UniProtKB/TrEMBL annotation, chain A:
Keywords: Glycosyltransferase, GPI-anchor biosynthesis, Transferase. InterPro entries: Glyco_trans_1, PIG-A/GPI3, PIGA_GPI_anchor_biosynthesis. The keyword Kinase does not apply. This is phosphatidylinositol N-acetylglucosaminyltransferase. Residues 192-338 form the Glycosyl transferase family domain. It comes from Nepenthes gracilis. One of its GO terms (molecular function) is phosphatidylinositol N-acetylglucosaminyltransferase activity. It holds the Pfam family Glycos_transf_1. Pathway: Glycolipid biosynthesis; glycosylphosphatidylinositol-anchor biosynthesis. One of its GO terms (biological process) is GPI anchor biosynthetic process. The keyword Isomerase does not apply.
UniProtKB/TrEMBL annotation, chain B:
The lineage of its organism: Eukaryota, Viridiplantae, Streptophyta, Embryophyta, Tracheophyta. GO terms for cellular component: glycosylphosphatidylinositol-N-acetylglucosaminyltransferase (GPI-GnT) complex. It holds the Pfam family GPI2. It comes from the Eukaryota. The chain crosses the membrane at residues 60-78, 90-108, 115-137, 149-166, 208-229, 236-253, 259-279. It is a multi-pass membrane protein. Its main location: membrane. It is found in: Membrane. Pathway: Glycolipid biosynthesis; glycosylphosphatidylinositol-anchor biosynthesis. This is Phosphatidylinositol N-acetylglucosaminyltransferase subunit C. GO terms for biological process: GPI anchor biosynthetic process. Belongs to the PIGC family. Keywords: GPI-anchor biosynthesis, Membrane, Transmembrane, Transmembrane helix. Coiled coil: none annotated.
């Protein structure tokens, strides 16, 4: 068995701290746990504002903020070969053995994976999102994904629905795709010390107020629930283009005293908002996994959610009420949750979540995928080109061309700056014992602790 | 506890479940794939099977409109060549207007005297405005060469045909709930610009008035009239379209041999080749739906 082989991993994604979201969280916690398991982890992302260069985070997690500014929705401009020199330098400097890319619409991730394959590294890819097959955007995205996944060693998805989706989109054999869900930091999301009063029921919604997160559904649901139950209050956290509609709804039905709009909630304050409620409502129209549900359940809230994407797999049936994504069904779901509420013990739910999800478990499972990837046989350029050629009549040839150009450019860069001339970065080792129990926090602008 | 018991029995007889919680499932790897993989996938749920005759019949609407536009171009070129004088052009305008109203009266369900008066009043305003503006149109493009005007007109007409809404009418009918789309509005506007450009080449302002009125009548109301006929009787619509196509072809044959060939091949392409092509490529249609699709909202969003 090679189970105890130590890897040197480069995580690549456009999405990382200081941004917040499912992917950012996943990369951060996974890296922390992998560091604890004794692997070396380096993160590569693009510059955020004036945050560029090398930074260190908690437990010596090294982050390269590559000086490339995002141009649309936090993604860098696709340049095909432009990122090769810097990716190569980082790979050699940090003596990386494996590259792990995250998120299908991160251009930086696609490019880094392509360069890593050109240079003969083993590559793992994690897909965090779901895509349809009907609209133009999805069709293009799926082709790009097919290009990247044609040559990855292993792929990871966050739920079984996401795995089915990824297999369909990319044509990978299902055995190459692993399902490793997200997890939740249960130490950070603890229920309130004393139980909330039962005479009033507070329903919490925390999501970006956009179409995909079901803000329009929320606009229909809130007045109806308020009409049926006089002891229900809503707390809505989050901001977005649909906030105006929610506020209009509040005025129209004069619910100002029963619907509280908090605006954007910083991640550090999510827990304090969550513990002020009894029920968590998620109205998303599409969701690969939904970490928000985990955070709410960890705080001891009963969840009502739409039955979309990977949501039904996330929690056992007695911890979540699922409803179809239409207003009347969702109102029924909330009614059901209100009836179930007296039987819910937040502390018990929290302890149960602790046993169901842990980032350490995620890291151990990811480690096995890495071992698997390292066992994959090496392939020559010609073998890989033949695999690209099968991707489509026109696309296949285009992909081959891109790979050949990338290969030639790599040869050029090798001549221009030989690997021996690149200085290796020294490893920072931290004593591991005393940080076992401390809750993780982002070490803002921290140098090595 | 009930749940505890359930979990115990599962520990004794591990069975793979399609869930994400609870860590790695005993005895199964994370890449385990069983029969339930892709069981919720639905393929080709919304695909309509078409047959050739039906598609050809439907394509007649397109050919019909192509012919109407071709006839307008014909009238333009005859007027520019001074083959039609101003009075006969005005007579044609009146004839078309009367014919259009007649068709609306005979086929429309909700035409009342009140509505008719409303229409007549509106048209009076419109005609007066146009008459007052025609001297301006007359001198609008005096400094631009005729070649540029023709090239621009052809381009605008192509845009018009490309964006035209062939399914219904471009103007909003009184009482209809469907609003015209942006595309059909752009299409209508390009046709209006094209007619104004052509009119500005004419010798007198009476000509200008007559030709702009004629073009606007056709571009604005022909889709309305034809869709009324189509709703009234599909058979009548078909025969009328075939007659129109033949008439147009004959007229073009007299005008210009090259244009005739062009129009003829276009009509054949639209009514015969395209439907056949559509049926042929039908078998490549592959639609995938499943739990990963974004849920559709079952109500309208009122903004």
């Amino acid at each position: 068995m090679m189970g105890h082989q130590k890897h040197r991993i480069l995580m690549v994604s456009d999405f990382f701290y200081p941004n917040f979201g499912g992917v950012e969280n996943h990369i951060y916690y996974l890296s922390q746990c992998l560091l604890k398991l004794g692997h070396k982890v380096v993160v590569m992302t693009h510059a955020y504002g004036n945050r560029s260069g090398v930074r260190y985070m908690t437990s010596g997690l090294k982050v390269y903020y590559v000086p490339w500014n995002p141009f649309l929705m936090q993604c860098t401009l696709p340049t095909f070969c432009g990122t090769l020199p810097i990716v190569r330098t980082i790979l050699i400097r940090e003596k990386i053995s494996l590259v792990h890319g995250h998120q299908a619409f991160s251009t930086l991730c696609h490019e880094a994976l392509m360069h890593a394959r050109t240079m003969g590294y083993k590559v793992v890819f994690t897909d965090h999102s779901l895509y349809g097959f009907s609209d133009m955007g999805s069709i293009h995205m799926n082709k790009v994904l097919q290009f990247t996944l044609a040559d990855v060693s292993q792929a990871i998805c966050v739920s079984h629905t996401s795995k089915e989706n990824t297999v369909l989109r990319s044509g990978l054999p299902p055995e190459k795709v692993f399902v490793i869900p997200n997890a939740v930091d249960t130490a950070m999301f603890k229920p309130a010390a004393e139980r909330l009063k039962d005479n009033q029921i507070v329903i919490v919604v925390i999501s970006r107020l956009v179409y995909r997160k079901g803000a329009d559904l929320l606009v229909e649901v809130i007045p109806e629930v308020c009409r049926q139950h006089h002891n229900v209050r809503f707390i809505v956290g989050g901001d977005g283009p649909k906030r105006v509609r929610l506020e209009e709804m509040r005025e129209k039905h004069s619910l100002q005293d029963r619907v509280e709009m908090l605006g954007a909630v910083p991640h550090a304050q999510v827990r304090s908002v969550l513990i002020s409620g009894h029920v968590f409502l998620n109205c998303s129209l599409t969701e690969a996994f939904c970490i928000a549900i985990l955070e709410a359940a960890s705080c001891g809230l009963l969840t009502v959610s739409t039955r979309v994407g990977g949501v039904p797999e996330v929690l056992p049936d007695d911890m979540i009420v699922l409803a179809e994504p239409d207003p009347s069904n969702l109102v029924q779901g909330i009614n059901k949750a209100i009836i179930m509420l007296p039987k819910i013990d937040p502390q018990a739910m929290h302890l149960r979540m602790k046993s169901l999800y842990s980032w350490h478990d995620v890291a151990k499972r990811t480690e096995r995928v890495y071992d698997c990837a390292m066992r994959c046989s090496d392939q020559s350029l010609l073998e890989r080109l033949s695999r690209y050629l099968t991707c489509g009549a026109w696309a296949g040839k285009l992909f081959c061309l891109v790979m050949i150009i990338d290969y030639l450019f790599w040869c050029l860069v090798k001549l221009w700056q030989p690997a021996e001339e690149i200085e290796a970065a020294p490893d920072v080792t931290l004593s591991q014992q005393h940080c076992e129990e401390t809750p993780w926090n982002f070490n803002e602008d921290g140098s090595v602790r | 506890m009930e749940i505890g018991g359930e979990e115990n029995s599962l520990l004794m007889h591990p069975k793979w479940r399609k869930v994400a919680y609870g860590g790695m499932q005993r005895g199964f790897n994370d890449n385990h794939t069983d029969d339930s993989f892709l069981e919720d996938m639905v393929t080709n749920a919304n695909v309509v099977q078409r047959d050739l005759v039906k598609v050809m019949q439907d394509s007649i609407s397109i050919s019909q409109y192509l012919c109407i536009v071709a006839l307008v171009v014909l009238v333009w070129s005859y007027t520019l060549g001074s083959n039609i004088n101003c009075n006969s052009l005005l007579l044609l305008d009146l004839l078309l207007l009367g014919l259009g109203f007649l068709v609306l009266l005979l086929t429309g369900e909700m035409i009342s005297l009140n509505l008719l008066l409303h229409y007549i009043l509106n048209i009076t305003y419109f005609v007066t405005g146009l008459y007052a503006l025609s001297p301006i149109y007359h001198t609008l493009t005096r400094s631009i060469s005729s070649d540029s005007i023709w090239a621009l007109t052809v381009l605008l007409l192509l845009v018009h045909l490309f964006l035209h809404d062939y399914t219904g009418c471009t103007v909003k009918v009184q009482g209809s709930r469907k609003n015209p789309t942006l595309r059909s509005n752009i299409s209508l506007n390009t046709s209006i610009i094209a007619s104004v450009l052509i009119a500005s080449r004419l010798p007198s302002r009476h000509h200008v008035f007559a030709i702009v009125l004629f073009s606007l009548q056709v571009f604005l109301f022909a889709p309305l009239v034809t869709s009324c006929i189509k709703r009234h009787s599909f058979r009548l619509h078909t025969w009328l379209s075939v007659g129109l196509m033949l008439a147009t072809l004959v007229l073009f044959f007299q005008l210009n041999w090259f244009l005739f060939c062009l129009l003829f091949s276009l009509l054949v392409f639209v009514t015969v080749v395209c439907p056949y092509w559509l049926i042929k490529i039908q078998k490549y249609k592959f639609e995938i739906n499943g739990p990963w699709d974004e849920a559709k909202l079952c109500f309208d969003i009122r903004d």
